[in-house]
C-alpha cells in the first residue's frame, strides 16, 4: 500500500485531518490572545496620620464638596466607560457569532468529507480484512498442517528415542549383569587364591618350624661338635707345648706347619712337614714334640663322625712367641 | 641398594665358605722351659787294659755344661747299647730320653783306639747323621771326647760346639807378697793346663790371635810393662812394644795383622794400632781422658774401648777408618772391659751397680741390658767363639777363680780351681 496509490484513501484522509487540526489550533490561539491580563490590585499607600474628623470644619466642608464633585465626575466617567465596554462587548459578541457560524460551516463540510472518506476507508478495511482473514485462514491451515507433521515427526522421534533408550537400557542391564558375573567370577578366583595362599603359608610356616627344629638340632650338634673340637684342640695344644723343646737357635716368629694323622684310638699315625721353617732342627723338634705327646686317649671317646670330620687329619702350627729372641 | 648388594656378596661368601670346611689348625706358641733330655750311654769296650779316659763321661760333662741338655743318669739306664741297632726305643721312651748317644771303643793293633759313635732319635727311632769313627792315641782321648761333644752339640742345637777350644788365664801362686805369675793354657773345661810363661812380675791381658796360633800379653820387666807375642806351638816369644809409660791391653785384629793396644807415651793413655809385620804405629784416639781396653769388632771395622771422657768409665766405639768415636753404654755407674759376641749382636761388659761389679750383656740391636752374674767382683769377661758362653774372673773366699755364664744368664758354672788366684781368662777362637 502506497501513498500515491490512486485508489487509496490515505492522502485525502491525511489532508482532511490536517485541516481540522489547523483550524482547531488557530481558534484556540485567538482565544488565548483575546484574554486581558487582569490588573494587579493596587496596594493603598501606608500613611501615618491621626484620624481627625474634619467634616465639621471649613476645610472639611470644602473637601466634602470637592469629594462630592469628584464622585460625580467619577460616576460620569464610570458610566461612560461602562457604556463603551458594553458596546465593545456587543461588537465582539457579534463578531464571535459570525466566526462561529463560519467555523461550523467548515466543520460540517469537513464532517461530510470525512464521512465519505470513512465510508471508503471502511470498505477498504473490510476488503483488506476479508483478504487478511483468508490469508490467515490459509496460513492457519498451513500451520496446522505443519504442526501436525511436526507432531507426527516428534512422535516418531520420541518413539525412536524411546526405543533407543530402551535398547540402551537393555544393553546397560546386560552389561551390568555381565559385570556382576565377572565380579563374581573374580571374587571366586580371589577367594580361591587367598585360600591357596593361606594354605601355602600354612605349609611354609610348618616347613619353617620343621626347618627351625632341624636347624636348632643341627646347631646343637654343631655346638657340641665345636665344644668337643675346642676341648680336644686345647688338650693337644697344651700337651705339645709341654714337651716342645726348642733348639737354642730358635727365634720368635719361626714357623713350622705339620700335618698330623690320628687313628681313632688317638694314636698319631703320621707326621709330615707341610711348611718348613727353613731350619731343619726347628722342624725336627716340632715333629719330636708331636711324637712325644703320644696317644691322645681322649680322641677314642669322641663321636666317630666328629673324629672323622675334625681329627682324622689336623695341622699344627709351631710359632714360638715366648722366646727371648 | 648398595647394602643389598653387600648382603648378596656376604651371602655368597657364606655359602662359599660353608662347604670348604677348614682343616683344623692348632697353633702352638709356647714351649717347655726344659733342657733336651739326652742319654749318653757308656761306650762299649771289651779290652783288658783300662782306657785312659771315659769318653762318654767327658761328652756328658761337656753337654751338661753347655746348659742346653739334661742327661739321663747312668744308673737309671735299663740297657747299655753300644750301637744304634741295639737301641730298644721303648726303654728310652720310658726314661723320657729324646736322644741317645751310643758308642764303642776298640783297641787297634798299633796302640791306638778306634772310637765309634752314633746318635739316635728315640722319637723318630732313626739315627741322626752317620755312624762316625775316630782313631786316637791314648793321650788324645780328651780331644776325641770334646770333638764328639762338638759334633753332638751341633747336631742337636744347630750351633757349632766350642768344647775343643782352650782358654788362657793368669795365676798368681805362692807367697802373697811376692807371688809367681803364670800364664797358662788349658782345655775349655779347665783340664790339662800348661804353663806358657812364668814370671815374678805381673802378667796381664792375654789375648789370642784370630787363628789361635799366637797369643799376646803384657808382662812386666823391671817394673815396666811390655807387650809380647808368642807362638803357642813353639813357645817362640817376641817383644813388640816398649814405649815410655804404659804399654798395655793388646788385642789382635780379626785379620791377624795388627794389634790394638794402649800406650801412654804421649803422657795420656790412648788407643793405638800396631802393624805386627811393619811395626808401624798409628794413634787412634786423641783425648785428654783415659782411653783403654781396646777390642776389635768381628768385622775389624771398629774398635770398642773404655774411656772416662764422659766422667765415668763407659764403653765407646771407635771407627777405624774415620777415627770418630761414639758412646755405646749408658746403663750402670760404669762399664769397662767390653767384648763383642762373634756375631756382633751382644756386648759384654763389667758393669758397676750399687758398688758391685757384675758381668752385663747389652743387646746392640735393642739396647736392652741384662746383668748376667751375681758373683763378687766379677771381671775380665771373655766370650766363647760360638757366642754361647762368657768366661770371667770372680772372687770366691778371697780367691780369684774362673766362672762361666751362658749369654742367656741361665747356665752358670765354675771351673775347677787351680792353685792360687786365677785371673784374666781369654777364650780361644776355633782352631783352624
TrEMBL record, chain A:
**Keywords associated with the record:** Membrane, Transmembrane, Transmembrane helix
What Gene3D superfamilies is this protein classified in? 3.30.1150.10
Residue ranges spanning the membrane: these are 12-33
Q: Where is this region: Disordered?
A: 71-184
**Keyword field contains Lipid metabolism:** no
Origin organism of this chain?
Answer: Marinomonas piezotolerans
Q: Name one Pfam family in it.
A: TonB_2
Which residues fall in a compositionally biased region of kind Basic and acidic residues?
Answer: 77-98, 106-184
Protein's name according to its UniProt entry = Protein TolA
From TrEMBL, chain B:
Give its localization: Periplasm
> Matching Gene3D superfamilies, A to Z?
TolB, C-terminal domain, TolB, N-terminal domain
Limits of the TolB N-terminal domain: 24-127
Q: List the Pfam families.
A: PD40, TolB_N
Asked if the keyword Signal belongs to this entry, the reply reads yes
Q: Its function?
A: Part of the Tol-Pal system, which plays a role in outer membrane invagination during cell division and is important for maintaining outer membrane integrity.
Q: Which family does it belong to?
A: Belongs to the TolB family.
This chain's protein is named Tol-Pal system protein TolB
Gene source species:
Marinomonas piezotolerans
